[in-house]
Design brief:
83 residues; mainly alpha
């Protein structure tokens, strides 16, 4: 093997933490996207729902999903700052 290739392998070996962070970022992005879609679906259901009990349940569920999405965004931002 040439020096460049050996140095690259060595660099990859020491940068395993970065690889793990990249995997976490991609996973977080996927989860955040899914949460955003679910939140939009719930908001449309909430607008169309007539029953007050179901509206309260949907609103509470939507608030929980929104909070989880914000936590994910905060974590994603923290991962980007660590680079």
């Amino acid at each position: 093997m040439k020096k460049k290739k050996l140095l690259q392998k060595l660099s990859d070996y020491f940068d395993m933490g970065k690889r793990k962070q990249c995997e976490q970022k991609s996973c977080l992005k996927k989860i955040i996207r899914e949460l955003r879609e679910k939140e939009h679906k719930l908001s449309t259901k909430l607008q169309n729902e007539e029953s007050e009990i179901k509206r309260k349940r949907l609103k509470k569920e939507s608030q929980i999903i929104h909070a989880q999405r914000l936590k994910g965004l905060k974590r994603l931002k923290a991962l980007r700052c660590d680079e």
